[in-house]
Design brief:
There is one protein chain. By secondary structure, the protein is an alpha/beta fold. 32% of the residues lie in helices and 20% in strands. Strands 1, 2, 5, 6, 7, 8, 11, 12 and 15 form a nine-stranded mixed beta sheet that branches. Strands 3-4 form a two-stranded antiparallel ribbon. A two-stranded parallel ribbon has the order 9-10. Helix 1 crosses helix 3 and helix 11 crosses helix 15.
Length: 425
């Protein structure tokens, strides 16, 4: 059995999220996308927890995971074609924003937390509520060092886990250029051995992360960090075996076990809005080498450009090599067995290209729905469908083939502006 999991999502209780980020809405879109395990997100928010207690039940045969209770499952199933119907399981997850002082600097680091039960989340929330406000936002901001957050989490339940979130985002991440650290060990100190996975984020991919020695012995995960259910699975993880089970999934991530973890599914990193350097107000997009030649200053206005993920990777790679007296290595030069990674362009974008229309065309949704009704969920269609299916899809099938073969054009995102990726057909 092969299934997809997206473990970092948000509910309607987080800022700037869709009102459709409900358990039913997430389950509905999980089926359309072909995602079998979905994070609950926002498990620290009391209002969301009350809704989860009401609508979820322990999933039969899936230890540590939940499913919708029958009345709510019926709501989620509305409008889902038979070809897309799959059992969807929920893992209890959340995200914490840590803003605190460390080493004389203000640090801003986001962490994804995974727990084996709603009961464990409730116990954690009692402790977090004594530290800061967990009511105002589904992703609470706490003056809590991630190292101490991890300690509290493991004291609450030894089966819980912390995964540093989108580790390269400039302002809010473990390795971010603006307020992060230069290594995992610098951030988590003596508890670093308990960090067995990190999240790549939308602006980086596996080869970029494998250039950094401090990440040699962790598993790379990829999630959507969605604020709207329709974005579910835009980045995801592949698991093998089954049925899904919390302890089995985490054990696979902990060991980087290829018999359990099948790798990641990613958007092309250039699509991420912080991949390259630049200054959006001036329309300036720069590769790291160009920024370095300009002293990281905008050639139009003279202000400092926003340093992107690729620049930060190059910086840390050079720093590590200088410290160890070695030349920078090629991507993939670590010690742990690396899991596969595959790229996608979201199906609606490929439908638009196949039809020759813009991204807001009303022609996209009917064609998208027809493809799902005839051929099944989006991720299996993009990644697993055979030649006959692709032939039946005509121009859309040609676009899917092009992406699988890496035949794409890439215009990198910068300074908060998403990049543009197109299939070459």
């Amino acid at each position: 059995m092969r299934y997809y999991a997206d473990l970092h999502i948000h509910s309607r209780h987080s800022r700037a999220t869709s009102v459709s980020c409900t358990p039913e809405g997430l389950c509905h879109w999980a089926q359309l996308k072909g995602v079998a395990v979905c994070g609950t997100g926002d498990c620290t928010h009391p209002g969301w927890m009350a809704e989860l207690w009401e609508k979820l039940r322990e999933a039969p045969g899936a230890q540590g995971l939940y499913c919708l209770a029958p009345p709510f499952q019926a709501i989620a199933d509305e409008g889902v074609p038979p070809s897309c119907r799959i059992p969807v399981r929920f893992m209890v997850t959340g995200e914490i924003s840590s803003i605190y002082k460390h080493g004389g600097r203000c640090r801003k680091v986001h962490s994804v937390i995974l727990l084996p039960s709603l009961d464990a989340a409730e116990r954690l929330n009692v402790r977090l509520a004594a530290i800061g406000n967990i009511v105002s936002d589904g992703r609470p901001i706490l003056g809590l060092d991630p190292r101490n957050l991890l300690e509290i989490l493991l004291e609450t339940d030894p089966r819980a886990a912390l995964i540093p979130a989108h580790i390269w985002t400039p302002w809010f991440s473990m390795l971010g250029a603006k307020s992060g650290f230069d290594s995992l060990e610098e951030c988590f100190g003596d508890l670093s051995p308990n960090i067995f996975a990190v999240e790549t984020g939308l602006s980086s991919d596996a080869p970029m992360n494998r250039r950094i020695r401090s990440l040699d012995n962790v598993t790379l995960v990829s999630n959507s960090d969605l604020h709207s259910p329709s974005n579910l699975g835009r980045n995801a993880n592949v698991f093998l075996g089954g049925p899904p089970d919390y302890d089995v999934m985490l054990d696979g991530l902990r060991r980087g076990a290829p018999e359990i973890c099948g790798g990641t599914v990613d958007l092309f990193p250039e699509e991420g809005k912080y991949h390259l350097d630049g200054h959006r107000d001036c329309g300036v997009r720069l590769a790291p080498e160009e920024s370095l030649a300009l002293g990281n200053l905008c050639p139009v206005c003279g202000k400092e450009v926003t340093i992107g993920v690729l620049h930060r990777v190059v910086e840390l790679e050079r720093m590590s090599s200088t410290m160890e007296g070695e030349r920078p290595r090629e991507p993939g030069g670590g010690t742990r067995k690396h899991l596969p990674h595959r790229y996608i362009i979201p199906l609606p974008d490929l439908v638009a290209q196949a039809l020759g229309v813009g991204p807001s065309s009303q022609k996209i949704q009917p064609a998208y729905a027809r493809a799902l009704a005839e051929h099944g969920g989006e991720l299996p269609l993009l990644l697993d469908s055979g030649p006959d299916t692709l032939d039946a899809l005509g121009p859309l099938g040609d676009c899917i083939r092009a992406v699988r073969d890496g035949r794409v054009t890439r215009q990198g995102g910068f300074d908060g502006e998403y990049g543009i990726i197109r299939a070459i057909v």
